[in-house]
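Incident log, support desk, overnight shift.

02:14 A customer reports that sequence design results differ from what the structure should imply. Their input is reproduced verbatim below. On-call engineer (initials T.W.) acknowledged and began investigating.
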């Protein structure tokens, strides 16, 4: 597993990974969220939203 110097670097890697897979990243205040949309090309609707910072913290905790 790749090691990151700090949580911010880990979060940035997650953002890149999500974007590579077509997930929209939105920022609310100082927190970023991965916004998952359904596959309707005419009117994509959000189906889930995940705090990337919280996701990163959970992954770190579970993997350590």
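02:41 Re-run completed on a clean worker. Output:
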């Amino acid at each position: 597993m790749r090691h990151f110097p700090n949580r911010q670097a880990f979060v940035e890697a997650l953002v890149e990974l999500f974007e590579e897979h077509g997930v929209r990243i939105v920022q609310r205040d100082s927190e970023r969220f991965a916004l998952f949309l359904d596959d309707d090309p005419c009117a994509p609707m959000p189906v889930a939203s995940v705090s990337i910072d919280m996701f990163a913290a959970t992954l770190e905790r579970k993997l350590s």
